[in-house]
Sequence to fold (359 residues):
Amino acid sequence: MTIRKQLALHYTMIVGVCLLLLGGLVHHEFITEPRQRKALGIPELPETIWGEYAEVFFYGMIPLVMTGGWWLMRRTLAPISALADAVERINAGNLREPLPRFSQGDEVARLTEVFNSLAARLDESFQQIRYFTLHASHELKTPLTIMRIQLETMLQEEKALSPEQVEWLECELDEVQRLSKIVDALTLLTKADTGLVKLERKPVRLAELLHESFEDAQILAEPNGVQVALGEREDVKILGDRDRLRQLLLNLTDNAIKYNRPDGRVTMALRKRNGAAEIQITNTGEGIPPALQPRVFERFVRGDEARSRAIEGCGLGLSLCRWIVQAHGGDIQLSSDPDHITTATVRLPLATEAVSVAA
Fold:
């Protein structure tokens, strides 16, 4: 319960007690006492009557004063409530927007200044982290590219190498390619955070794109023995960046295949629902623990440690998916029933309702 509600409740209780006491006083002064005087034959003097009126008036002012105090209390605390609402809306994307001033020259105004100063320092720290990540990722690309080229060149001379050497080189090449993917994902996400990524805004037929992703998924699923099925596929058109949307579907289907049980199943579907294009990708994997589900779109968050070590990945795929979807004006959700079905649902505005897409 908020402070305003607590004080309002206390004021209401006090005013109620005051009104009860005042009612008892009025009943005693103007009903009970006159009856007793009349029964005893004692006349009531005019001065006594006016004194009783003054007494009732004095005690009657107490509830009015309490009510006025309650109103002043609400008015005084209103800026604090408004400030709390404004602070609650702060996130990493709007730290540069200062909080509005709800009062002048008092403690609330000073608290607003402190919050604005804190937000400015946080924004500066976030900017430093983003630029560091961007520059570090850029610097890592060149040595990783050189290492990949050198390993590929050595593998081309397979005849001069022993089987153990070939296996070692292939393992090293896989690790280099994995690092390259992590660096590329970090670079893209950091550029998106700093507003350096612009998306195209062209008509895209999602049915065609989903079918292409379905064909890619079949190739990815074959080594794992996972079946991929294409369900309902309505003809839906949106405005967006085809390459990024294809990356979105590839990441989701790749996750659905990797985090699946042997001989499992992946289903892809597309339909119109509530004025939006809805894509659903389900799999029959082990599912996501309930405690982890709210954090699956955070960066570097993965499933349990044992499975994470066995399955390739870095925990950036779903973060990329969320950014792509939000950049297209849509939303993405992941629901999971452990040991049964996991469903990724993407909703994107139709072409006639699509918003301007710029990260």
About this structure: The longest strand covers residues 265-273.
